């Protein structure tokens, strides 16, 4: 009767909790890896793009560090979960131990979310600064890669070279100095 309905309701709530926590973990992991990959891409980008992010390098390194920390904490959560499950298997009368392993698992679950969101936030702040708040590129000659430079060399020529098209020197500022 009523007792079995209550158990079914509790079982349904626990299944929902499991699905939601799995989704939160996946989202946190995706944010952490995404922030880390984005920071890496911006830090090793073509010289002009990397230079446009030079003023926010500390934010990028901070975001990358937080992303790495979130990934490590995510792994630690699984270690705590494994130990907790092993303890439950060794003590069948205690279905879910409430000792340090369970607390560690819960702390890691919350901490990885915080770290991943902070990593994404730092990355977003850095991008916003570069796009909207960074000073325009210097009024010096613009750099254009030579055909050799496109093949991985770092040689550049200026658009102020004799015969360069005048319009290229006065193009409106794009989103970043590289564009």
Structural overview:
- This protein has 179 residues and is mainly alpha-helical.
- The protein is 67% helix and 3% strand.
- The chain has helices at residues 2-43, 47-52, 57-90, 100-133, 166-169; strands at 143-145, 156-158.
- Strands 1-2 form a two-stranded antiparallel ribbon.
- Helix 1 runs antiparallel to helix 3 (57-90) and helix 3 packs antiparallel against helix 4.
- The longest helix is centred in the first third of the chain and has 42 residues, at 2-43.
- The chain is elongated.
- It starts with a helix and ends in a 10-residue tail after the last helix.
Question: Average pLDDT value?
Answer: 78
Number of strands: 2
The major sheet is characterized as: 2 strands, antiparallel
Q: What's the helical proportion of residues?
A: 55-70%
- How many DSSP H or I helices? 5
Determine the oligomeric state from the structure.
Answer: single chain
Secondary-structure topology with pairs:
Layout: H1 2-43, H2 47-52, H3 57-90, H4 100-133, E1 143-145, E2 156-158, H5 166-169
Antiparallel strand pairs: 1-2
